[in-house]
Amino acid sequence: MELSLARVDYLQVGVTAQKTMRLLPASGRKATQKVVVGDQDGVVTCFGIKKGEAVPVFKTLPGQKISRLELGGALNTPQEKIFVATGSEVRGFTKRGKQFLSFETNLTESIKAMHISGADLFLCASYIYNHYCDCKDQHYYLSGDKINDVLCLPVDKVNSVTPVLACQDRVLRVLQGSDLLYEVEVPGPPTVLALNNGNGGDSGEEIVYGTSDGKLGLVQITGSKPIPKWEIGNEKKRGGILCIDSFDILGDGVKELLVGRDDGVLEIYNFESADDPVLRYDYALSESIASIQGGCVGKDGYDEILASTYSGWLTGLTTEPVHREGGSGEELKLSQEMQSKISSLRNELEHLQMKVLQEREKYQQSSQSNTAVSSVPTFSVNDKFTLNKDDASYSLILEVQTAIDNVLVQSDVPIDLLDVDKNSAVVSFSSCDSEPNSNFLLATYRCQANTTRLELKVRSIEGQYGTLQAYVTPRIQPKTCQVHQYQIKPLSLHQRTHSIDHDRPMNTLTLKGQFSFAEIHSWVVFSLPEVPEKTPAGDSITYYFQNTFLGTQLESTYRKGEGCFKSDNISTISILKDVLSKEATKRKINLNISYDINEESVRHTLKLIHPKLEYQQLLAKKVHLIDALRELQVHEGNVDFLLPEYRSILEEADQLLEEYKRQPAHLERLYGMITDLFIDKFKFKGTNVKTKVPLLLEILDGCDQDGLISFFEAA
Questions:
Q1: CB 3.0–4.6 Å: which of 54, 100, 106, 680 could bond 574 by disulfide?
Q2: pLDDT tier at 396 (50, 70, 90 boundaries)?
Q3: Confidence of residue 332 (pLDDT cuts 50, 70, 90)
Q4: Where are the alpha helices (DSSP H) in 587-598?
Q5: Neighbours of 699 (CB within 10 A)
Q6: Are 573 and 616 part of one and the same domain?
Q7: Cα-based distances in Å from 17 to 292, 452, 484
Q8: Are residues 612 and 538 in the same domain?
Q9: Among the listed residues 80, 32, 38, the one whose alpha carbon sits nearest the alpha carbon of residue 55
Q10: Is 435 within a domain?
């Protein structure tokens, strides 16, 4: 059965956060459902749809921004009480809009995640989890990394309260009371959790998770251990997952999986076989999807998928056909309906244009008076700066509630800007002076009209650290700009991982000195990405990392007065030694630094780099030949006389050029890494080999692995 859905835009509220829109249960069997949504102006809006128009049920007054909205009620009854988390408070409303609960939790931070099950309330701030029953404190847990979402397995099915926390360090933490029962390792930082089928499946133990790097998975949370069921990668390189729901949109009696992503892609997966879900349908909205629900909203008997986007649009994808079949009378009736709707919209538009003109005149008059006070319009920017494992680059995503005019990107460290397919903005580079101002990049992205979301890609160089700044200017009057800063860390291409290969040849760096656990943790946070800012509980901690560009690894273990760092790449150890000693010197702390260098690790690292080097050199050679071969093709008219390898270059010319363009300076980066490895190897021996670098570059051009290893060992 082919799925055909038509888009309907119902209403726009203020900017919305993740999981802040729900559908209230229908009162009759085929009745339409009311929509309730909370925005960052603190307003809860409830409305229904009549004849295609949004009819308000209730609307609360503005207040603190709403971070979560959930439905609750007694177990096994319709869940029609509305609960919102705002700041550190939870408020409850009836479906008519009457407030019946105002619960001040006294949490020191704002609530980030919330789940409700009967009389049980589960709340999470950044690192803290709290469980309340009838608004009385029951359990508490301090997480090792930031909590992104919380869920509890259905109590009526599993007969116990089993909360699950989705944590930034790629782990689901399953709790029992105030204690950790076990951890579930997942392939990316989990951003959202949902009960499979809306009820946890037959056992009530099945949880679907979505990650910030776009992966989707199902895991069964049993009383003793997790059982992974299926996992879907992100082959299409789509955005991170923000919301998940289960709903039978196909009408075949089996609920489909609805997924909303931060690049605006809405997906429907169905279970054709009992095993893995299959992507059945997708639709691209222009901004990130904060919440997703399946139900009946617009018209009786027509199911639809409702999504709320970042800027507050409530958009439905309905099964109701756009062109109705029927006699001429129905068509006439429909056209009359449409005509009256069009004329009312025209009147509304004229009224708004008049209002804008009046307000603009009023502003001009007030700005020219002597007592004028300049007012800067405020606007929300939703930004995300993350490392992509696949191509070792950073994605900077900027989303604004109104259209973007331009974005100026400035960096005080050398970085490459990479091409992004989805990006339609025109980029222009300005020459910059790197010496006095340490300004290495100055680029302006001019956006097309109605662009609210911009995605940039940058690649940094390990060992060079500083700040990337984005100046965001939207199309609003008077012109105003927001500056957002992003740290490029010394080991910026490293990513947290669950485990490493301990059989590799490792180099060890050991630090000893009069420093506290909090101090050495702050140095590690400064040096490496994906390390929680909060000092870990306990006396010591171990983190594992993998270099996304080369595949080398790092193990860091530290406690008060001692730190031990192991890596199979000497350059990683060298960068850490320089950064950590510099940070300690700033605080006037004496460090006793010792290192153990494994000669075999250099050969091992070169063997990891060489296939990449060989591939990039071959790609560069092929690209340089394309123009000459094309000229030959034009002159000769026939290329059958060419060798097969040259013919294949001509056939694949467009793909080769595209790949080369997508990875500028890739070969130079590899040359730089091998040169650094060479210098660092001998730096630990106290020898300066910079004069031998030109000879090394000659050997690199020859692309001979054995010759390269021999040069490293003989120098």
A1: 680
A2: very high
A3: very low
A4: none
A5: 15
A6: no
A7: 12, 16, 19
A8: no
A9: 32
A10: yes
Per DSSP, the chain holds a count of helices (H) and strands (E) of 10, 43
Tokens 């009057």 sit on residue:
477
User: Within a domain: residue 262?
Assistant: no
End position of a domain, from candidates 451, 486, 521 = 486
Structure token digits, residue 706: 């054995």
Boundary residue ending a domain (432, 464, 486): 486
Q: Are 69 and 46 spatial neighbours (Cβ–Cβ below 8 Å)?
A: no
- 288 contacts 262 by C-beta, under 8 angstroms: yes
Separation in Å, CA 508 to CA 464, 505, 569, 658, 674: 22, 10, 10, 41, 20
User: Tens digits of per-residue pLDDT, 86-116?
Assistant: 999 999 999 898 999 999 988 888 999 999 9
Query: What is the model's pTM?
Result: 0.87
Q: pLDDT confidence of 331, banded at 50, 70, 90? A: very low
Question: What span, in angstroms and rounded, lies between the C-alpha atoms of 520 and 244?
Answer: 39
* 590 in the same domain as 646: no
Q: Which of 412, 401, 415 is nearest to 456 (CA)?
A: 415
CA 135 to chain CA mean position, Å: 33
- Do 217 and 143 lie in one domain? The reply is yes
CA 672 to chain centre: 30
Return the minimum-mean-pLDDT range out of 241-245, 262-266, 562-566, 637-641: 637-641
CA 365, 366, 371: angle at the middle one, nearest 5? 135
- 678 and 552 part of one domain: no
CA distance 405 to 628: 41
- Does residue 707 lie within any of the structural domains? yes
Query: Rounded CA gap, 236 and 453, in Å?
Result: 19
187-234 pLDDT, tens digit each: 999 999 999 988 888 888 999 999 999 999 999 998 889 999 999 988
Domain span at residue 567?
494-597
To the nearest whole number, what is the mean pLDDT of the chain? 87
